Amino acid sequence: MHLIIYLSYLISGLHWANAAINGSNVNNYSTQINCKKNYIKVELNLNDSISNADIYLENLKDYPVKDCQAIKEGNRRSFQFNLKDFHQCGLTKSKNLWTGLTTYSHRIVLDYLNNTQEFVYLNCTYKSLPKKHHIIKRDLLPEGFVEDEDFELTDTLVQQAPEPEVLMQIKQNNEIVTGNLTIVSGTPLLMEIKLNEESAKIYGLKANFLEVGNTLELNETILFNGCTVDPYLFDNFNLTENEYLLAKFRAFKFPDSSYVQFRANVQICLNKCQPTQCSNGQTAYGRRRRRELRRQAYEISLNTLLQVKDRTDNDDNKAIHEELQKHLKDLRVKNLFLKH
User: How many Cβ atoms sit within 10 Å of the Cβ of residue 277?
Assistant: First the structure.
């Protein structure tokens, strides 16, 4: 059985959200969320009957990063997310370009001993403060440059259309790959980015940037202004008949970590986003064109995790491994030019 609890906060301060919904475990815990400017803290206060439940962030059950694991204090389980590095633990960031509201969201999984699960969906919404105006020449800033923003919490939300829900997932042979599964390097995979059914009737998608990292300090751009940096590792995103983005790629990993994190910057447009022509002649659904600015409705930053292992037990696997490492080295060199 799967049960989902939605916790949404738009105002400052500390709030209690009792689980007033149908389900076998709804009276067994209470949830407390604290939305602050620089961090979000979530606490689950458990009754003794479920104190042995396994509690973790969705897709990060065995993730070794300590900051992404539940802190245990008696019957209390807590998570604290640093908003300056919101990608680290898989938070999704959604900015409404009409209202200036920015929302951070995630899901917490509660695994019970009776083989049932509950999902606690949380989000905190912030309002951007007005910019101070200075006379600064900005001609040298790259297209797509995003300034740091100051936030204030707000208790109002004007919705002219439903807020889009975006899903990013990896598939192998049409089966979803989660961060709990280990994939062999070189395995052909698909990355899928799509809107939920209601949102897809109103909005379109395009991917502007995609970074890959080792969850430590190494991050390389593999999709720049909507076009692939290395088509051997990762192909361009194409729009399918079902109106979602799909890209082929090969499983790979960096030498010092078995986890690879993909961080995407996705534009949500009214109706459809216009594709761009990449230098290799392919049409890709990426890159923001200046004449399309009024069509843009949301900017979404989301990520997914892949666990990869190398296999060099025969000549074929050794050749694949060496080719992947060659392209990863080339990717790093190409990124030096992109960043300067």
Answer: 12
